[in-house]
Design a protein that fits this description.
The structure is a homodimer. By secondary structure, chain A is mainly alpha-helical. Chain A has nine helices and no strands. Chain A binds a DNA duplex through helix 1 and helix 3.
Chain lengths: ~220, ~220
DNA sequence: GACGCTCTGTTGCTTACACAACAAATCGAG
DNA sequence: CTCGATTTGTTGTGTAAGCAACAGAGCGTC
């Protein structure tokens, strides 16, 4: 069983987790997820192999965890300083998803049919969580939803996720994509007009971006 | 009492020792040895303060240990690949001492009357150890010593140490100094002629170095 | 002097990690 | 298929590290 090392406050726990994540990250640069063993991870992290199992169920759980934290980190970097505007917060979320896909395409190109599905399912689930939280936090700022919260969250997350998945970075930048998706997501959740006006201004900028891109 | 953590093979031991040494090294760049506390070291190393005492008696013991290991490291880098020639080995030792002083002068200038004495006494002791080992290892390659091994080692180590201490890096390079000291040390321990000839060749190179230095 | 404060070592107890050994699963070679 | 080799999870036991609490030393302030 996993999670034998419980106390996240204990310096020893955070240290070995960091060691595991670091060596795992390094090894992923050198070989694929499937060919790499727990023993290798433990050896490079200079921890005992049994200790690994005290922290993660297996290497896939570790992989999910790494995906989660990098996504959360991107989100944290893109959240606006002020958290008082729900529209801005939602845009930051969509934006982060696009940036994540951009980064993913750079490090692990789409042809990879081995590890990418693991990332993708994780990203969709995480998007779902974030959207759900956002919806619950902002029910009073929104008009009537077209569907229950959980259904809405499901659809929004899949919409953003699917669009990001099918996106080939060539035609438009991650930023531009994010703006377009945000405008549509705003409608899905019934954001009021005033916030939507914000999106239209941004969309104007997108059209200029597209002109620039198509002019070559 | 110290040295509660005994087993040097245990990864936990080496890990925390490295953490302690690393944060200690960092802190020494920021403040003096005397103003810095065990608590600071432990905090930066993210270990418990009590754990520190399981490894080192106090911060001076840690300091001695750091000096020892950096000296040993310089020596390891300067030892010839082939350990079969006693003369070369001895020269490497002297050379390392000079390089150590060079490095010491760069990071911790002589006017410092607080920490330098701690380094110096340590270096002399360590030189003494190395010379003693060398003498024992090469008794059969040497002529009759002018004094017992321990006395000879004592005098050689003090001679090298004192010369290094009084050396102000301006007049000649560490390399040049090392060559001159080596030649004299070779006599002290009664190295045979053939090995001494080696030194003369090197000394020829030194004279060129000195010309370069004096030409500016 | 008395005080408050910080740093020093030390101690008893708890928890996380190391290690060896194990059975079971996986996999490639013959 | 069978064999050997490797990897996977899991377990019991010893030890290092975390933590809180302590008395004592040093040190500046009133």
């Amino acid at each position: 069983m996993a999670q034998g090392a419980g106390n996240r406050e204990d310096p020893r726990v955070t240290r070995t987790r960091e060691l595991i994540e670091q060596s795992f990250y390094e090894l992923l640069m050198e070989k694929s997820l499937h060919t790499l063993t727990i023993g290798e991870i433990a050896k490079r992290a200079r921890i005992n192999r049994a200790t690994f199992y005290a922290h993660f169920e297996d290497k896939y759980a570790l992989y999910r965890h790494v995906v989660r934290t990098t996504f959360a980190q991107i989100l944290a970097e893109n959240l606006p300083a002020q958290l008082d505007d729900p529209a801005l917060e939602l845009r930051a979320l969509v934006r982060s998803a696009c940036l994540f896909f951009e980064q993913l395409n750079a490090t692990c190109p789409p042809p990879d049919r081995q590890t990418r599905p693991l990332v993708e399912v994780q990203v969709q689930a995480q998007l779902n969580e974030y959207v759900t939280v956002w919806l619950h936090k902002n029910t009073n700022h929104l008009g009537a939803l077209a569907a229950p919260v959980d259904i809405t969250a499901e659809m929004v997350s899949w919409a953003v996720f699917g669009a990001g998945l099918d996106w080939d970075g060539g035609r438009q930048s991650a930023e531009a994509l994010a703006e377009q998706l945000s405008a549509l997501v705003a409608r899905m959740v019934g954001l009021p007009r005033e916030a939507a006006a914000d999106s239209l201004i941004e969309q104007g900028r997108n059209e200029r971006d597209e002109e620039l891109l198509s002019s070559r």
